[in-house]
Amino acid sequence: MVYLFLDTNILIHCKPFKEIKWGNYTKADFRIVLAPIVIDELDKHKYNPKAKLAKKAKQVLSDLEKIMDDENENKINILVTRPQRSSFDRFQFDPKQQDDTLMLSIIEFSEQHPEDKVFLVTNDLGPKLKAKTVGIAILILSDSEKLPQEPDENEKELIKVQKELQNLKNLIPKVDLYFQNKANVRKFIAPLQPPDFETFQKSKMLLIRKMNPYMAKNEKDLYKNPLAGMREYQRAMGGITDYTIDQHNKSLDKFYKDYEKYIHELYTFENDNQRSILIQLHVINDGNTPAKDIDIKLYFPSFLEVSVEKNTPVPPKEPLAPKQGDVFSSSFAALPDFRIVTITEMIKTSREAHDLDGANIQIGKEIMITFHQDQLKHLQTKILRTIMAKFNSVSEMVNFSINYELNISNVTTAIRGKLNIVIDQRNNNLPV
After folding, report:
1. Rounded distance between C-alpha atoms, residue 296 and residue 408, angstroms
2. In CATH, which superfamily holds the domain spanning 2-154?
3. Which of 5, 53, 147, 211 could form a disulfide with 48 if both were Cys (CB 3.0 to 4.6 A apart)?
């Protein structure tokens, strides 16, 4: 005889046990045995919060009651006797553990039927491992015996609600703030330390004076300079006199002063440019519906000087040197570009990108910049006006974060996040 002890999971998750063709598995005469602990578990499942499991447990218990009342039923054996206390001590099993109790019911039954084969029928890993440790044989059912994983009424209702919520979410704009290419981190390379102003000004003025020298008057003593008479004659013929030379040199004096002022303005402009970074932010709506009445708040650290640029900063205008007016004059080339090398990345933006309402800046413990956008269509991007963040000096350029908050009239909660600025100071051998 082959005895099959059914675990609770077989009764709950497989076809009704009377519909399974057990003979195909045993290939011999068999009887199904149910241990008391299995009946206990079925009773507990009657109150399972999952309606599907509770319904199945009640159905199995109802079928078992009918079998108990059927005097002709000889294929089902429901045990009444529970394992002895000594058996728990012998195998060091815990009477509070359901698997331990089931194993001992099988062991004691096997000892009482030494000539018969006894199997545990289970789909759970825990009972399989426990049975293997005590030498109980396991019979595994085909997957075709398992019930399909269909949701019960409560689960169906939950799925329905989840779908409705998802549909509602699809009607909500999905707006967020990024750097270019949807990045959350923007990296800048710090420039070299600027030169000392006095050294910078001195070297540039020496070059300017060399390229634009004073006009010298010719020596009129023919004994000292035999060619002087010929040059004097040529100058006279060209309208160049001592007076015009004096006037030209006075113009040069004014030009030198103007150029010194220009160098100071240029140095200041480039120094500001060096210790500044230009930040461009993108507001993107990835949702399926337009976002309306968008208020954008940006929070910068107080150690920065922050401004919103409408146009790219314009360098000072270089003065023009006066021209010499005779046949010996030449058009001196303008001073070549000697701007300090800067790392500031001038971001080119189109005019249409700057159609958000003007920014408002408030300074407190943090610097807050606010923008407003009336509407942002789905799958649309708007670019905020370029923001200039200026440090106190190149050596004080450090990493920082921009905290932001988006308030949208047709989104119930504020959208908050953080964008990170990374400054690479390797050029200056300073700690990053």
Report:
1. 9
2. 5'-nuclease (3.40.50.1010)
3. 53
